[in-house]
Each structure stands twice: as C-alpha cells, then as structure tokens.
Specification:
about 325 residues, alpha/beta, Nucleotidyltransferase, domain 5, 2 domains, three-stranded antiparallel sheet, about 30% helix
Length: about 325
C-alpha cells in the first residue's frame, strides 16, 4: 500500500502530519479550520460567512478545502461491496464461441478521452468486454477511427472500412451491434451546424455521430443503479461471475476500474454530512461507458444450469417425496 492511500490521522483539528514512504520526507497539511478564528465551529463564524460570500462553491472547495479527487476515498468496487478481484475478472483475450450478441457503448470526450467499449453477451448471460477505443477526439475523427479499430468485429479490414460510404458503415454497424448506447448528455443541442444554404441549425453530439456513421441511442445514466448492477455482475458464484474484461485489449478500462473511488469529504463536510454516494469525476470515462452498457443487461443474471448427470438424476428421484396411497380393498 502506498503512503497516498493511507488515511492520515488528524493530530489537532485541521492539522495532519505523515511520512511519505516513497522518499522519507515528512509532510504536513494545514487546513484553515486549524485556526480557531477561521473555524466556523469555533470562533470563525463571521470570517467564514464573510469569505464565502459571493464565492462559487466549486472554487471554494478547490481552493479552501481538501481536493476531493485524491485516491484516499474508498474503492467503489472494493471487497466490502462485491467480489471484484482483478486476478479473476481481468483475463487474457480468447475466441468466444458463437452464438452471442455484439454490443458497443461510448462515453464521449473531446478534451478528455472518448471511451468506446465493444462487448460480447453470451447465451449463458456473461458479459465480456473485449476491446476499447480510448482517445480524446471530435466526433468525426473518433467515428472514423472506431470504424477502423473495430472493423474486425464487423467482418471487414481497415482498408475495406475506409473505402465504405457513411451510409454503408451505418447499416453494417446496425446489423452487427445489437446494442449501441452513448452518454445521454450527447443529446443536448449545444452545437451549431451550418447547412449548404448557409442556414445554421441547433445540433447535438449524438447527431454528429449519426452523420459520421454511428446510430447510437442515449444510455441510462443512473449512477447508483449502474454501480450496483456492475457489482452484481462481479459477484463470484461457483468460481464464475457474469462480467469479465480482456485485460490485454482494455488496459485503460482495467486501470479505471481498479482506481474508481467515492468522493471523500473534507473534515468540515464530514462532520455535517453522510458519506458521499458520488464517485470521483476523474479518470472514469471507461467506467461510465461500462455503466451505459451494463444498464442494457438484466438486473440479476443467472448462469445456465449444466445438464444433470444420470447419477444426479437418480439421487433426485430417490430423494423426491413419494405419496403413499392405500389401494387395497378393505372388504377382502
């Protein structure tokens, strides 16, 4: 465990002291609440009120409170919540036998990475995340690159995909991927498109992906439900679970899953609020894409039962309750 993952004890209110195990340096952290004349719980109510006046909450938290994006918050897929184990769930890629469904999901980012995931849904209700696209890009460029990167799953080479028209690419993707979901915020009409006539119309990111060959539907962005369902799919029963990730194909998703954490409140916030249910909104693009994908799957997946052996059937027959009837004639 690295020093940054260790909870730092508060020596006095607003003051923490610890040793950096990586370099041996002693580190001190002083919060404004260490000063009783600035602590709103002691003599600093007027100072606090005066300083906060007209100050945007986000800016205050960034400049005056402890940064909530550190890795000291509890892991969302930690052992206290589910059976997630990277040694079990992150596996080497292999050829999955048909029949199965191919799915694709996308969390769009222009400055942050656009995270596209390709998944296989098998007949025994297992979800395999088999490939990823992870790069910041505008929709037109990310669309082109995803068609080329995922061409193999559509039965084409990169060169063949480049030679196809937008309409043919869209038809092919719709035939191959039974589910195609994207971040629902992409439906917002926050762009402008100039028509050939020179007229400008309101335009959305999801429409721009359509114009570049991808027919996506808005995904379900319920954060709590998405996290819960992923945990359900991570549960291990009889040494099997319902969610696996090809680690050699999806290194960014694996990294995000292992570091996906809840926000940690500041000392002041922690005294007045329950623990946060919100994840840290940083380095979570693959996790968001997985969330849209998992919300298209059943709530409680069940593995198909293996065919019973003759011995198992015989044992069941022997243990089955039998109804005893009195069939003889009492007059005889």
């Amino acid at each position: 465990m690295q020093y940054k993952d260790v909870q730092k004890p508060e020596i006095i209110k607003g003051f923490k002291l610890w040793e950096n195990k990586l370099n041996g340096f002693t580190v001190a952290m002083v919060h404004y609440t260490a000063d009783p004349y600035k602590d709103p719980d002691r003599k600093g109510k007027e100072w606090f009120k005066r300083e906060r006046k007209g100050f945007p909450k986000a800016k205050w938290l960034k400049e005056y409170e402890i940064d909530s994006t550190t890795k000291s918050g509890s892991l969302i897929y930690g052992p206290e919540y589910c059976d997630f184990n990277d040694a079990h769930h992150f596996i080497k890629s292999f050829k999955i036998p048909e029949p199965y469904e191919l799915l694709i999901s996308l969390d769009f980012g222009q400055r942050n990475p656009t995270a596209g995931l390709v998944a296989i849904w098998t007949r025994n209700k297992k979800l395999y995340i088999i490939d990823e696209y992870y790069k910041p890009n505008i929709p037109s460029k990310s669309s082109k690159e995803m068609f080329e990167k995922f061409a193999v799953y559509m039965g084409r080479t990169e060169a063949q995909m480049r030679a196809m028209s937008i309409e043919d690419k869209r038809r092919l993707a719709m035939q191959v991927f039974s589910t195609r979901v994207i971040d629902p915020s992409t439906t917002a009409k926050n762009r402008v498109k100039r028509l050939g006539s020179g007229e400008e119309i309101e335009y959305s990111i999801i429409e721009e992906f359509w114009d570049n060959g991808w027919d996506f539907e808005p995904g379900n962005n319920d954060v709590s439900s998405g996290i819960t369902r992923i945990r359900e799919y991570f549960q291990i029963e009889n040494n099997q679970s319902h969610l696996y990730v090809f680690a050699d194909k999806c290194p960014n998703l694996c990294r995000e899953i292992k570091n996906y954490r809840y926000k940690e409140f500041t000392e002041l916030q922690g005294r007045t609020r329950n623990k946060s249910e919100d994840p840290v909104k940083k380095n979570d693009h693959g996790c968001d894409s997985l969330k849209y994908l998992i919300m298209t799957r059943p709530k409680t997946p069940k593995l198909l039962e293996k065919p019973k052996t003759k011995i198992q059937k015989d044992i069941e027959n022997l243990l089955r309750p039998k109804i005893i009837t009195n069939d003889w004639d009492v007059d005889n």
